[in-house]
Each structure stands twice: as structure tokens, then as C-alpha cells.
Here is the input.
Amino acid sequence: MRKPWLQIDLDVLKENVRIVRDAVGPSSEVIFVVKSNAYNHGAIPVATAAYHAGMRWFGVAYLDEALELRRVLDKPGLLVMGVVEPGDVPTLVQHRITPIVVSLEHGRALGDAALAARTRLSVHFKIDTGMGRLGVHWKQAAKVYGQLLAHPGLQIDGIMSHFATVEPGRPESAIAQAERFTDFDRRRRRIDPRPVMRHLSSSRAMLYYQEWDFDAVRPGIALYGYGTQDSKMRASTRPFLEWKSNLVQVKKVPAGFQVGYYSTYTTERPTTIGTVCAGYTDGFLRTLSKQGIVLVGGKRCRVAGRVSMNWLTVDLGRDSTAQVGDEVVLIGRQGDEEIWAGELARLCRTIPYEILTNIAYRTERRYLSSAGDAEPV
Ligand SMILES: Cc1ncc(COP(=O)(O)O)c(C=O)c1O
Here is the structure.
């Protein structure tokens, strides 16, 4: 049965890892963000290959994701950047997984749970320096840090924050956030001279601002090959996920032939309509109706009519020799043509993150690797 699939080239990922590692240099750690199943590239094969290429820390959103990684990777540091609960503490300690602390109450609840389990929990303290999402507001951060520092169930091993906006043309808000972070760190050191892992930058900040590397950076999208095209950036990476399917029917049709729900596409001249097995249930957004592009036979072909749940139709042109079973590229390269998640994102007025993470979780993933690193260690 023909279905869409993903082809993921782990050799390119490993190259991206080396490029980013080299750009950042040995004085800072790189925490590779592999949440949401590694932005849908498959967390286990991606983290395993990245580990082989030298990555020693991974960041996820949920405890389950960290546990999945721990099953196959015993050594790397694992940071859960979402909000864990006191009931999670024994599991976190047992599997050496580091959660973040987002408030005084949260920290106390985790610390109390650790004490009750006769253990001590290693945590990273999150400061809200302007993102307004998670963490202790920068004005209260030093005070709350002091209160949690005194908790015998907690060991604060890191401090972190997250940028809301990084625009080199308008850097004011990012600079303000970085200053709040540095200022907090200065005040923190007066009450806690221990070195802790300080991290602030995700991909964009990492790519533009070396001075904000601190002890670690937390890139995600850059390692998946997106958002690194600007020549002013410190690293240039390549995407390595291709999304493919097949033609399941090909029809020669006359002028005036109507295609798809609500017949929104009518052929102007005799042409060839190809039906592709991929629809919005697979993550090919319905917004791409009549404007999306796919590659067939090395050519860019426009989506004809509405994208439906499991199929989409494309106008292949009058002289097309395409046949049932021919490969269709939804994201990736075919011949001299390419289409990547960034282009689809622009068409849909969204970001490549959403295009990638919308691809159906169940989609079969086929891994390419010269070293056989798709297998867990
Ligand atoms: C806290 C945090 N750090 C780092 C990242 C990685 O961001 P990016 O993929 O833009 O590098 C994310 C992603 O959303 C995040 O939420």
C-alpha cells in the first residue's frame, strides 16, 4: 500500500552537529533540542547519531521524551524544559534527568518531594527575562534563587532563560534580556559562588551572538538545517529530512475538467492530473490548496484544487509522462529542484517548525546512515 514516508539522512545531521560544535567552540556546551520527536525527525535515531558526532546534552519538553532517550543513551545530560511535577521526582533522580524550576512554589514542591524520597534533585533555575512564558520574573529571580538554594532537597546546577525575539536589525529587546540574565547571574554569585551551567541562546541568538554563549547554548532548528542561510551567521547547516510519497493515479483530462472538493480547479486546456497519496491528515496543510508545490519527475508542480484528508491532486501538464508509482517529493530534492519546509512555511504564513512538527507522527521514517548509526547504542 502506498503511503507517504520520511527519508532522514543522519550523515547530514552529523555534519550539522560538527559545524555547530566547531562554531561554538570548546568553551561552551551545546544542548541539542530534540523535543517533539526531534522536530519530527525521530528523537532516538537523531539523538543517537548526534551523540556519536559529539553531542553530550539534549533538551526535551516532557519527562517521557527524556525517558525514551535515557533508555538508549546512558551518558548524555538530559534537560526537561517543560514543567515536571513532584510525583516525577523519583523517576528524575533514578534516570539522572534534570528538570527546570519555574517558580518558588514549584521549586519547593520538587525539593520537598526529593526530601521525602531521601534524595536531592539536580535542577536548572529558569528566569523569565522577557519571554513571559516560563520562569521566575527577573526582578524576583535573585530572591527566589536564594530561597531555593537553601532547600536541602534541591541542588541548583544551572540557570537559564529564553529569548523572545532575536533580530540583529533591532537588537534592543534581546540585549535587554541578555543584560537581565547577566545581572541576575552577578547577584546570584554573591550568594552562591559555585559555577553553574548558564544558558540562554537558542538557534538564532547562537548564530548571531557569540557573546551570549555563556556555558551552553540550546539550538534546535539550526541543527535541523533551517534558519542558517544568512552569511553573517556563525554556522551554515543543511536540512536532512525529506518527505516523499507516490502518484497513486494519473489521468489525461480535457479542458474544463474539474478537480477536488467544491471543484475549485478547472483545467484550462487538456492536461494530466496526478493524484498523490498525502493529505492534511499526513500533515500537508490544507492551506496549501491551489498554491502548494510538489516535485514530480524533477519538476515543480502546483497543487490543483483542495488538499483533502488523504490525497492531493497536482497538475502535471499536458505532455507529462508521469506514471502511477512515480515518486513525489513534498519536502526535499528531486533532480535539480528542491522544496524545503521554509518555502512551504512562507506559503502557509507560518514557520518551518510548524510545517515539520505537523507531519503525522505515524509516518514511516527511513534513515540513511553510512555508519549504521540509526541503531541505538
Ligand atoms: C526553552 C527552549 N530552548 C531552546 C529551544 C530551541 O529553539 P530553536 O529551535 O529556535 O533553536 C526551544 C524551542 O522552542 C525552547 O523552547
